[in-house]
Structures are given as structure tokens and as C-alpha cells.
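Researcher: For the annotation table, I need C-alpha cells for ABC transporter ATP-binding protein. Please keep the output clean. Sequence:
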Amino acid sequence: MDRTEAIAPLSRPGSAAGGDAEPGRPVIRLRDAALAYGDRVLWRGLDLDVRPGEFLAVLGPNGSGKTSLLRVILGRQQLTAGSLTVLGRAPRRGGRHIGYVPQQNSLPAQATLRARDLVRLGMDGHRWGVPASPRSIRHRVDEVLDSVGATPFADVPVGRLSGGEQQRVRIAQALAADPRIMLCDEPLLSLDPQYQRTVTDLVDRRRRSAGTAVVFVTHEINPVLGLVDRVLYLARGGFRVGTADEVMTSSTLSRLYGTRIDVVRARDRIVVVGAPDGPSEHGHADGPNGGGRP
Ligand SMILES: Nc1ncnc2c1ncn2[C@@H]1O[C@H](COP(=O)(O)OP(=O)(O)OP(=O)(O)O)[C@@H](O)[C@H]1O
């Protein structure tokens, strides 16, 4: 089966999901957004539009607020200041048409749910037309499992699957939401290069076939370098957003980190030398990079 076909959505971007019918209109819109925990500012002054089909990589050191940004978009965390719309509306928990691939943690070895159960849980009746018959749901689950190459282990308890297989199942679960936005939190962590490629291909195929916007948190830009439209780099309470060529430079990252960073391009890879990979410091948005507008 052609896998691109298999994951084609039932609703196209800008079709049925709400007040954002205008094609090409941002599916995520942040304005002057800030997030702080107590007096600790993770980021502020963030203006960002993510458009249908766009692939946005989110980079930054540990603790810079990458996961927190996804949680804000998911409606699980409130902004401290500024505004956010997701698919034209205020974000809300359980919002439709958002696929979430959470940061990897091994599923417990004794987990008895099967891949097909998890994918089924990722669906709800509204997404697939009302009423959805058990047969059409089963068919759709099979399609989604096939689209990520998970058919051979669809009936194995997920606790027994390898890390790479579990990751495919997580992506299948996210795809089951017929997502117009995919939020992926470090989906490449601890995967070998072959599985990394599988995961990035799956996500890329979805955004190309269905216009799904992708927000992809990663520590490593290289596995997605050929796919990203823009990079959002968070550090020390500030940020930079732009193309990889604009953001991944010695001068931009040195300003963002407030220390000398060397960015070296070797063939088709980017090597960043000197970036401290530790928690962002407190409230540095007024530093040399001043909140870092695009
Ligand atoms: N609910 C919360 N209350 C207080 N502090 C929090 C809360 N959630 C996260 N933090 C802190 O905010 C900081 C940013 O966390 P977040 O998980 O967003 O960072 P991250 O950039 O995704 O990090 P990593 O690369 O390590 O996954 C961390 O220091 C974290 O401990």
C-alpha cells in the first residue's frame, strides 16, 4: 500500500476544524508570549506564526523551555503573558487535530496494551465522522499502523517492543488524531540513525501529504536539517527564530548564549562548539539578545 495515501487525512487543512478556514493562515500564533515559573523566565517576547505544512525545529539547552512550549500549545500550561491561538482558538486540553508525540520514556515491560489499542485510543469518534462504525475504526487503525510500518507488531504488548518500535507506535498514536499540528518532543532520543531516519520520514511525509504543521523539539539539528523550514532556538530567557542558515551561526548563538560559540559547517552537518547544555539562567531576556525577535 502507498503509505502516503494511507495517512491522508479525512479533513484537509482549513476545512472543518473551526474558525480558521482561510488557507495558509497560521495554525499556531504566539504574540509577545512569555512563560515564567516564579521569577524564572523561560522565554518572553515570543512572536511566532507556524503555518500549515511548516516544519519548525525547536532547539535549546536543557531546561530552556522547549517541552513547556509544547505544553502551552497543548493547553496544559498557561502563558505568563501574551497571547496564543491554536487552530484559530484559545488552546485547550484535549483540543482536536493535534497529534502529540511525548518525550520518550520506555513503556513498562509489563504493559499489556498492544499497538493497535494505543492507536485506537488516539482516535475519537468525531475525528472520523459520526457515527464511526467499529469496522471503519478498525480499518482506520490498520491504515495508521501500516503507515508507520507497525503492522508486524500491531498485536504484541507494547512493553515488549524495542525503543524504535515503541517510537513508531507513539507516532501512529499521534497520527490517529488526524492531526493538523504535530507536536513532537525529542522523538529521536536514543534511536539509532536508521530509526531516526524512519521517524523523521514519517513526520515529513505526513506534513507533505496533509499540510500538517510540525513543531519538532530536538537537541540535534542534523537529523532534520534537510527538512526544517525554520528553527526556534531558546536559551537564557531569549530566543532566535529564522531559517537554519540564519539561526545556526556563530554570531547568533554567541549573542543568544552570551558567550563564545563556534558553529562549524562540515559538509551537510552543523557542529556547535561551546554551547553550555545546562538549565537556562534566570530572566536574561534583557541581555545582549534582548528577547530575540525574529
Ligand atoms: N510546572 C513547573 N513548575 C515549575 N518549574 C517547572 C515546571 N515545569 C517545568 N519546570 C522547569 O522549567 C524548566 C524548563 O523545563 P522544560 O521541560 O520546558 O525544558 P526543556 O527545554 O524541554 O528541557 P530538556 O531539554 O531537559 O527536556 C526546567 O528547569 C523545569 O524544571
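Researcher: And a one-line annotation?
Model: The two ends are 42 Å apart (CA to CA).
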